[in-house]
Amino acid sequence: MALLAAVGCFAVLPDAAAQTSSESETPSLVTVAPDGEPEGSEGAPSAPRIVAVLRGPGGVGYWVIGADGTIEPVGTSILPIVSEPPQLTTQVVGARLGAPGALGVWLQLADDSEVAIGDPGPTVLTGEERPLGWLSGVAVRQLLSGAWWTDVDRWCTSELSLPVRIGQTIMTALGERSLGFAVEEARDRRIAGILVQGPVTEHVWRRIAELQDFAGRIPLIFAVDEEGGRVQRLAAVVGRLPSASAQTARSPAEVAEVTADHARKMYRLGFTMNFAPVIDVGAGEGIGDRSFGNDPATVTEYGMATVEGLSAGGVVSVVKHFPGHGAATADTHDRLASTAPLDELRQRDLIPFAAVIGATDAAVMVGHLSVPGLTGGLPASLSAAAIDGVLRNELGHSGLVVTDSLIMGAIRSQWSVSEAALLAVSAGADLALVGGLEDADAAFAEIETAVAEGRLSLDRIDAAATNVFRAKGVYACALVGRDGLGRQVLYDPTLVGR
Length: 498
Description:
This protein is an alpha/beta fold and 498 residues long. It contains 18 helices and 18 strands.
């Protein structure tokens, strides 16, 4: 869409009007038609029209102002201020993109002068806080496309190269001695992270640090199964934890404190994610003392305490095994298991998941569990009805979704690992947990082919990668156009308005 539609009708508003406008109300989506009026069906609420660009308070950044008075701060000026600072100019008549790979946009003004807004080139954001004007040229690029997105992180993710985005959907599983073989995958961003399996030594931190050096700006997730009891991989290095069942002998506050201390030791080794706690209600096949018990309230209380402790130690929790393995008919390491019907799960098994999702930022692991009347014989890990329908829409989980291992018997009996990875991501999972590096490479190729053939949408890839970035604490907008991560932005005359 020509930029004229977005900025050709700009009229400068007085500063007083800008100062009194609400900064908090941002349009969710602005689509500008060629005649300058918002598109939309008749009778639908009209989206605010972009009417002006003013220099921001103190000369820092700019304000994009809608006809309804909404204000969106964007960018920074990269030209010396040569006129009065409060106001940009009288009218914007056109624009052009900045240099290839840069995020900035040059605006042509009615007096034949030009001003650049947005990021003029690569910048490294080293702090956790987004600086003033962090939207930078990203917001202006959105104006070029005629659409305004409130989920800027996801928009920035869509600007990264497709291989980088696909790689964020795959997690491999390796023993400590095999970590050195993952250099190429880490360097090329073909995996999101590694589940470290088996006992580890005190040297594991060095191997993790070496791989993080190769990963660069997009760090790897290093995950581990550190539940306590019989499922504990780091015991030889950070000490033992009792099983979930045994932990209920302590108060929830004590469990949170002990878990936080354990998590800090994990974090110092380089582990950023723990596939724990188990919040399944009951001690069914494959669970046993890994559960906090048979009472949903008890499981919820101790599950929340564990999540709180892990978070305090800097480690992301992955609660498992949605929608509830505690009363399942089989151990999914061996074969597909069935649960009770959904209505019964709502009364028991889903209670801890709903509570944790509502109160924390924990990720959720989806198990290989068939739910009668919901998944149609598929495991929940491959079911859109389970992931998007129940986990996302009914329970309101907006964070990371991880599959249980796709090399387990419940999956391998019917699908290859790569087929299962594609099905899982298509169904709404963000991170497919596969086996070794061969499995990871095969899953990458399977997903890449599905995207190329139109069997998997880019929107689904972007949503998954965005959730993975957020779990990592990575700002996608700081990656666009840097170190070959982003798609190169070339000058396109069709985007220039006159």
